[in-house]
Design brief:
heterodimer; A: 346 residues; alpha/beta; Peroxisomal Thiolase, Chain A, domain 1; 2 domains; nine-stranded mixed beta sheet; 25% strand; B: 129 residues; mainly beta; OB fold (Dihydrolipoamide Acetyltransferase, E2P); five-stranded antiparallel beta sheet; 43% strand
């Protein structure tokens, strides 16, 4: 049985802060930070937006794009590291808001930045086993970064939703491969508002080891090579890491260009790779092959090999494209940003 | 707001579920269980509103009620839905974008929260179409 993407949808809040504005507050050299991270600005949630509202908006965009009957969902899984409730599922609220209640299973996933792709894999398994008709996998975050911490320059807000099924596919997921180890590169303890990280330790032992291992593992399994793919997208904690890992694996800058959304969006954590894939699907044509590898600290990577079908042309224009979601931003100063992120307590 | 009161209204708040009288064609939001036009001849059924409409009038709230202080100033409008009924809702945009007659569409947003440890209320707001 072929399993794949029936439809997809993304959502990005309208607010942005430029990295210069953050650097000015902390006395950092904006030019060197922007040059190092290769990120110019990042999205900021509205005062009334969180991982749940972003999940719902992305899911509704996916449902409307594919003209899917929400009562068909047999499973809804929401991946995030910023679930608004510690106990009370994001996924039940999403299920109610998209009209999928009550005959389905639902759960929240957390695996740093790759919880959304773990949700895709789970839906693939359920669909492939014939246990459900279609499933909804979401990755969304309003990521946290402590004031003055390096993460504050990139921690952004956004998400994407994928409807996984076995018929009416806009893209076939040929296979997936994961690589997982116990690597303490980044964490947030229960009850703590901001995460901690291992600084440079997050690079080689974290991001690069896991992304390259999962990507190579999948290509070995399928007998493919980078040149077999038209597009590639990797987790985007900044602009530098995905470009470097693409080069290490043998992908060209042209292959990753369409999915590299981080320079004008920031790191949307669980939404990062999945928004990048949405940007690729916004322009891919029948027969195009896409290679995706997500990364989540802690640590693990999920790699996917995807081939686009002719149905992409039918559904693509029925929902907002990532490029459109990034248009007409409202820029804010650091004080307003701090208010939006709940850094000001009254 | 009690948990039970919010829970009872989830379909209306999340998805603008109102009612529709199939006898006279009138739509109702919030939902009515009896059509005031057709009375006993009315046949009421649930109706999911498209969530698109027009701003009839609006005000800008600067002195917000408890729990909404961080959102002030915000736009509160009377919106006439395309199917007919009017409702009061927040329009999320700059004050300078607001004008009577503007088209809006519904979005899913956080309406408020009971407290830092209490329940979070989600529901429908509007943005310029």
């Amino acid at each position: 049985m072929k399993v794949g993407i029936v439809s997809y949808g993304a959502y990005v809040p309208r607010y942005r802060i430029k990295l210069e504005e953050i650097a000015a507050v902390w006395g950092d050299d904006a030019k060197s930070i922007i040059g190092g991270l290769k990120v110019k600005e990042k999205s900021v949630p509205g005062l009334d937006e969180d991982a749940i509202t972003i999940s719902v908006e992305a899911a509704r965009n996916a449902i409307n794009r594919g003209n899917v009957d929400a009562s068909r969902f047999g499973a809804i899984y929401c991946g995030s590291e910023s679930h608004p409730y510690a106990v009370k599922p994001t996924s039940t609220i999403v299920a109610a808001a998209v009209g999928a209640e009550p005959n389905l299973t639902a759960a929240d996933f957390e695996f740093a930045c790759k919880a959304g792709t773990a949700a895709i894999q789970t839906c693939m398994g359920l669909v492939g086993a014939g246990m459900i008709d279609i499933g909804l996998a979401i990755g969304a975050d309003v990521s946290q970064g402590a004031p003055g911490d390096a993460l504050e320059y990139t921690a952004a807000a956004g998400g994407a939703a994928y409807i996984i099924g076995s018929s009416d596919l806009a893209a076939v997921i040929e296979d997936t491969f994961s690589f997982t180890t116990d690597t303490p590169d980044f964490w947030r303890r229960e009850g703590m508002p901001y995460p901690e990280h291992g600084g440079r330790f997050t690079g080689d032992p974290g991001y690069f080891k896991h992304v390259t291992s999962a990507a190579s593992g999948l290509m070995d399994k399928l007998g493919t090579k980078p040149s077999d793919y038209d597009y590639a997208v990797f987790h985007q904690p900044n602009g530098k890491f995905p470009q470097n890992v693409a080069r290490k694996l043998g992908f060209t800058p042209e292959q990753i260009k369409a999915g590299l959304v981080v320079p004008m969006l920031g790191n949307t954590y669980s939404g990062s790779c999945m928004i990048g894939l949405a940007a690729i699907l916004d322009q891919a044509v029948e027969g195009d092959r896409i290679f995706m590898t997500a990364f989540g600290s802690g640590a693990g990577s999920d790699a996917f090999s995807i081939t686009v079908t002719d149905r992409i042309e039918e559904i693509r224009d029925a929902g907002p494209k990532v490029e459109e979601l990034l248009k007409n931003p409202i820029y804010m100063d650091y004080a307003t940003y701090a208010k939006h992120k709940g850094k000001i307590k009254v | 707001m009690t948990v039970a009161r919010f829970w009872r209204n989830i379909p209306n708040r999340y998805n603008l579920i109102g009612t529709h009288c199939t006898t006279c064609g009138e739509h109702y939001f919030p939902p009515r269980q009896m059509c005031p036009i057709c009375r006993r001849d009315g046949k009421i059924e649930p109706h999911k509103f498209e969530g698109k409409g027009e701003v009839i009038t609006y005000t800008v709230i600067h002195t917000a009620a408890k729990g909404y202080e961080m959102q002030a100033p915000y736009n509160l409008a009377v919106i006439k839905l395309d199917e007919g009924p009017s409702l009061t809702g927040q329009v999320v945009c700059g004050q300078e974008e607001m004008e009577i007659g503007m088209r809006v569409r519904s979005v899913f947003r956080k309406l408020g929260e009971e407290s830092e440890k209490g329940m979070i209320y989600y529901g429908t707001k509007f943005v310029p179409e």
